[in-house]
């Protein structure tokens, strides 16, 4: 097991457990005392920490980063064989992200300006914020990309720096993009040694176990199909002609078992819609509303049922796992600690010359755009330092506000209505036991010691106790 996966589970075992330390809050009005446990801040599967990270990311992007410009989501999914390569080689995955975002950026730069006077517009640049998701709706390992693009480009003309929206986007607009993505990915796989010059896969594991693999983009059947001898039942193998572009729906095309969807577009003034889109792209893998015990009366030995977001083609609407199988699936969804799940390209990149003049959360400077130099135009004065590519600490939401947004509870508000203050952070074992005993809160202990309530009750219990206990 990789070390970062072990570390994720170790941190998760302590998430919200008061025995490992907490923050003590105190009310000056009524002298009430409240304790708040530490969170694991995991990126893999913790639903509470993932929910807070999702809301933090969406809030920051909408308020600080995304300008008053239209947005369009591009979603690219890969065949099973390519997913296997991406999950085992983070350097390959990083190059794939760069190539794909570059192809779509060039599409916007080449086609958007056709609707305007190109002779008077120059220095065009697109922008994208990409999100990496490693999971599917059935908790399978499914690395794919959610890319939120500016639905247009920024350019300079006689009026200065401004946004040129793309017009007339249709399904046919995606055909050339898909062909270019396929060609670029072939080149990336060849550079990394996963594809030979003749176009066949060069992975030794595949050659030894799976026999002939005709193309690098031909999907391997999942393990469940190979193990049960149901290879012919896999729907991808029944596609009529993978060498031809096929339309699966509105702005949804498939080619060489690659799937590209771009049917979700949001107007720049719809900030609530943008926030929902960013929340969706930055969401965590586990949704508690989709998990339940098959036998609630015996949670220690009960299997776990996962409700699917939408039924499969054969009518399956839920999956049953043993608790061991569920943990095995969760272990595969933990990203390496050094792998960035959110990436910025184009005008959103930290080194781009226009970034400080486009993102709303950064103070504007003079001399680049003539409109900013005109007095009385309502532009904020050019004070403050330019962005270094990362949000300043004061832009991050306080932990109490994140709890209010994610679980609907504000731990800083006392029962008397006054606002509590943070008194101390308790980490010593003796002091922890003393305060828990004084407050009458029973020690929760490690998960392995809580056999009476069931492992999943421990893992997914959030705010179920009647005492004033929350996770920060």
How would you describe this structure to a colleague?
The relative contact order is 0.19. The protein has a seven-stranded antiparallel sheet, with helices on both faces. Strands 16-1-2-17 form a four-stranded mixed sheet, covered by helices on one side. The protein has three domains: 3-47 and 393-471, no CATH class; 69-267, no CATH class; 286-332, no CATH class. The radius of gyration is 26 Å and the shape is globular. The protein has helices spanning 3-13, 47-65, 80-88, 90-111, 175-191, 204-209, 223-228, 271-281, 323-331, 355-358, 370-373, 399-406, 429-439, 455-460, and strands at 22-26, 33-37, 71-77, 122-125, 127-135, 141-150, 152-157, 160-165, 246-249, 252-255, 258-266, 291-293, 304-307, 318-321, 342-346, 421-426, 469-471. The chain has 14 helices and 17 strands. Helices cover 30% and strands 20% of the residues. The model is unreliable at 206-214, 221-234, 362-394 and 446-472 (pLDDT under 50). α2 crosses α8 and α3 (80-88) packs across α4 (90-111).
Quick tags:
472 residues, alpha+beta, 3 domains, 7-stranded antiparallel sheet, 4-stranded mixed sheet, 30% helix
């Amino acid at each position: 097991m990789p070390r970062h996966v072990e570390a994720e589970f170790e941190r998760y075992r302590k998430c919200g457990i008061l025995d490992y330390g907490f923050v003590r809050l105190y009310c000056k009005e009524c002298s009430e005392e409240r304790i708040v446990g530490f969170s694991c801040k995991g990126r893999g599967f913790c639903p509470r920490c993932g929910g807070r990270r999702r809301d933090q990311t969406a809030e920051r992007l909408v308020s600080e980063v995304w300008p008053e410009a239209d947005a369009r989501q591009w979603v690219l999914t890969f065949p099973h064989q390519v997913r296997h390569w991406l999950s085992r080689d983070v350097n390959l995955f990083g190059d794939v992200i760069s190539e794909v975002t570059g192809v779509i950026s060039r599409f916007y730069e080449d086609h958007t300006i056709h609707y305007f006077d190109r002779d008077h517009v120059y220095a065009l640049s697109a922008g994208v914020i990409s999100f990496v998701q490693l999971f599917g709706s059935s908790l399978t390992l499914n690395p794919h990309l959610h890319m939120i693009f500016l639905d247009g480009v920024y350019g300079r003309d006689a009026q200065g720096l401004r946004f040129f929206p793309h017009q007339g986007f249709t399904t046919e607009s995606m055909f050339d993009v898909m062909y270019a993505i396929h060609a670029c990915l072939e080149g990336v796989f060849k550079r990394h040694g996963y594809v030979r010059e003749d176009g066949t896969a060069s992975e030794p594991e595949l050659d030894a176990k799976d026999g002939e693999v005709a193309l690098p983009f031909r999907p391997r059947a999942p393990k469940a199909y190979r193990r049960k001898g149901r290879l012919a039942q896999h729907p991808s193998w029944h596609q009529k002609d993978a060498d031809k572009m096929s339309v699966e729906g509105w702005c949804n095309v498939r080619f060489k078992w690659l799937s590209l969807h771009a049917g979700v577009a949001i107007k720049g003034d719809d900030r609530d819609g943008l926030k929902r889109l960013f929340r969706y792209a930055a969401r965590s893998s586990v949704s508690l509303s989709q998990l339940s015990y098959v036998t609630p009366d015996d949670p220690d030995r009960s299997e776990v049922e996962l409700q699917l977001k939408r039924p499969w083609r054969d009518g399956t609407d839920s999956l049953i796992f043993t608790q061991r199988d569920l943990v095995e699936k969760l272990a595969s969804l933990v990203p390496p600690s050094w792998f960035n799940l959110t990436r910025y390209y184009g005008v959103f990149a930290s080194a781009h010359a226009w970034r400080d003049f486009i993102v709303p959360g950064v103070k504007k400077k003079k001399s680049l755009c003539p409109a900013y130099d005109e007095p009385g135009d309502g532009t904020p004065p050019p004070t403050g330092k330019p962005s270094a590519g990362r949000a300043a600490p004061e832009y991050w939401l306080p932990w109490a506000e994140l709890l209010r947004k994610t679980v609907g509870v504000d731990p800083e508000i006392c029962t008397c209505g006054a606002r509590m203050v943070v008194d101390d952070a308790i980490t010593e074992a003796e002091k922890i036991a003393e305060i828990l005993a004084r407050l009458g809160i029973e020690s929760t202990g490690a998960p392995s010691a809580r056999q009476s309530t069931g492992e999943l009750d421990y893992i997914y219990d959030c705010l179920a106790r009647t005492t004033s206990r929350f996770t920060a």
